[in-house]
Amino acid sequence: MQIKIQDGCVDLSGEPILKRINIEINTQSKIGVVGRNGCGKTTLLRLLAGELQLSRDDPEMKSIFTVSGKPVIGTLSQIAFKDNSVSLVDEIRSAYADIIRLRDEIERLRIKIDRSPADELIEEYSAKLDLFTNLGGYYFEKEYEAAIKRFGFSDADKIKPLSAFSGGQRTKIAFLKLILSKPDLLLLDEPTNHLDIEAVEWLEGYLASYKKAVVIVSHDRMFLDKTVNTVYEIERGKTYKYNGNYSAFVEQKKLLREKQAKEYEAQQKEIARLEELIERFRYKANKAAMAQSKIKALERMELVEPPEAYDLSAFRGAFEPDFQSVNDVLTVRELEIGYEKALSKVSFDIKRNQHVGILGGNGLGKSTLLKTLVGNVPPLSGSFIIGSNVKIGYFDQQMAQYTSNKTILADFLDEFPALTDFEARSALGAFLFSGEDVFKNVDVLSGGEKVRLALCKIFRHKPNFLILDEPTNHMDIIGKETLEDLLKNFNGTLLFVSHDRYFVKKIAHHIISFEGKEEVKWFEFGYGEYEEYQLKKQEVSAAGPLPSPAVKKQSKGTYTTPAKEKSKRERALKKAEERVSLLEERLDSLNSELQKEENLSDYVKLSELQNELNETEEALHNAMLEWEKAEAALAEISA
Q: How large is the greatest C-alpha to C-alpha distance in the chain, in angstroms?
């Protein structure tokens, strides 16, 4: 498969959106598309999906769109539920219709071979079995079960009809079905929106090992770092290609523009020197020949284009707190947060000038904690103390929905009536509201513009303790990077919630991680320590449950009841089932590794994989025996 666009142009409603798009997508391309809001990223995805056509109005431009093969292209807009009475798990399983159909055919062939082992039947059986293996037939059930769990759906949810889910949950189900259906080209527009960290991390791993092509539009820089190996930036309607992930793109872009700027500056100096010589000697008879040679040199010179200015227009304006707080800014002890029932219990201390980021899954109370600290939600139990001389600036996600029929300038002056118009416009200008923009009505602003207005007001109050709830939502990458620079240099204390791990890594000195209702961890050394902890946790989980300690002899007078014994055997059975499941997943993974093209010609690697496969099969056999024993023991006491 190959899709190629050369000098592509797209107009919408007569307005040019994309002016010169050059992009090439091959069978296993992993491409990220970045750029400012409104630059045409989503338009490019719609063009690749066939929803838009190239413009042909400019006779000087030869826009070309070529497709080789017949690739299946997948987008979320193509996923529709035909029957809302179908259960979640059955809807997800429909993404594997070809594999399930092939499995049924293989079973029918097996039965026929048992009755009459004809050569042609055996040959057909072998071919279909190979195809089944290559399609992931031995592990597809594990794959979708893991995906459903990591996307936040419980075992009870799996059997619910689609009609029982909210709009947001149905979107997540449709998204899961899309990526698990494995189209030849997967087009993803902001795929991490509304996913918690656990789901995002699963998606990163899935896409990193995806054997087909992916094009991703995303503002999640860490997600791009972990999933793509090529970045196309759209700037002023043109595409610029960079090899590597997002971090590599940032570094390459900086170096290329610095190089171009130096070349342009050197050439401009040379042009000025030549023009000065020409002007000085062109009217002198004995120097006329020299002047003519310089004129020809100028005419032959291949001009270096000036580097396009960094498109870094974003809010700016450093600020300092009015005054410093005491050292103990916030003390939290056994604080239960929630509404009718507790979501989490937390204890921690925040000192002056510490920057603390909060991470964790959805529904554990991260935003509720901030609301509790600022007095918007009462605590269920426990306590917290805010130190003296602490001036709080609080940003809430709802500020992006702020409404007012006043102009930006009038709305701002309502909050700061002591300012002159000039001072107010200067403050707003630092956040990109300049010129006539200040006379726009607040109601017509986008979510990102409303966030900028809210932050402008907060910063103008000059707090020394910032409490921010998802401040980067609705922002493009440049906006996030500018806010990062602002907050890194903030001479005060910061507590914030964000799902943007790249942002957290840049800003947070320390991490509070909501691991579960009864488990909230403090990471003293920031995101690096947090990431290391998560990796170790995954390794322990993948290795299976630890061996049970030796059973101690019961002391005199101890006894067990039938109910206790049954509970004990149920736990043993559950552990045995989990062990079997983990080994089956490892076996499937090894079989998949054996089929990879890069391993087929590496005989050392094949030998290592085969040895590990043999050991895993033996371990699985022993685990199955243990599972059968545990099942029999439970059946015995239940009888």
A: 123
Give me the pLDDT at residue 553, please.
35
Which tens digit of pLDDT belongs to each residue from 548-564?
333 333 333 334 455 66
Identify the pLDDT of residue 583.
Answer: 73
Helix (H) or strand (E) holding 369: helix 366-373
Tell me how many degrees the CA angle 465-470-472 measures, rounded to the nearest 5: 105
Residue type, 486: L
Q: Tell me the one-letter amino acid at 505.
A: K
Helices (H) and strands (E) in the chain, counts: 21, 18
Nearest to residue 478, comparing CAs of 310, 317, 355, 318? 310
**Which one-letter DSSP state was computed for residue 500?**
-
Reported as a single tens digit per residue, the pLDDT across 337-378 is 998 888 889 999 999 999 999 998 777 889 999 999 999 999
CA 125/CA 108 separation, integer angstroms: 9
Strand pairing category for 392-395 and 465-469:
parallel
Classify burial at 10, counting beta carbons within 10 Å of its beta carbon; exposed 0-12, middle 13-18, buried 19 or more: buried
- Kindly state the average pLDDT of the residues 602-627: 68
Q: Output the CA torsion sign for 123, 129, 130, 132.
A: positive
CB 562 within 8 A of CB 637: yes
Structure tokens at 634: 């439970």
Compute how many other C-beta atoms are within 10 angstroms of the C-beta atom of residue 198: 16
- For residues 268, 273, 278, 281, the Cα torsion angle rounded to the nearest 10 degrees is 170
Q: pLDDT band at 545, cuts 50/70/90?
A: very low
Q: Which amino acid is at 118?
A: A
Decide if pLDDT at 312 tops 60: no
What is the C-alpha to C-alpha distance for residues 483 and 475, in angstroms, rounded to an integer? Answer: 10
Helices (H), 135-287: 140-150, 155-158, 167-180, 197-208, 221-227, 246-281
Q: What is the pTM of this model?
A: 0.68
Query: Measuring CA to CA, which residue among 132, 209, 143, 155 is closest to residue 581?
Result: 143
pLDDT tier, 264 (very low <50, low <70, confident <90, very high otherwise) = confident
pLDDT for position 474: 77
Distance (Å, rounded) from C-alpha 471 to C-alpha 480? 9
The beta-strand segments (E) located in 340-470 are: 342-351, 355-360, 381-386, 392-395, 465-469
CB atoms within 10 A of CB 623: 21
Distance CA 4, CA 265 (A): 35
Q: Which of 149, 150, 147, 172 is nearest to 162 (CA)?
A: 172
**CA distances to 11, 182, 535, 559 from 514, in Å:** 47, 33, 16, 39
Q: Residue 455: phi, psi to the nearest 5?
A: -65, -35
Residue bearing the bigger pLDDT, 240 or 79: 240
pLDDT of residue 601: 57
Rounded to whole angstroms, the Cα distance separating 174 from 192 reads 14
Per-residue pLDDT reduced to its tens digit, 425-441: 988 887 878 888 899 99
Residue 405 near residue 479 (C-beta atoms within 8 A): no
* CA 609/CA 193 separation, integer angstroms: 37
Return the pLDDT at 556. 36
What does the alpha-carbon distance between residue 104 and residue 189 come to, in Å, rounded to a whole number?
35
Q: Which residues contact 181 (CB under 8 A, 6 or more apart)?
A: 74, 95, 96
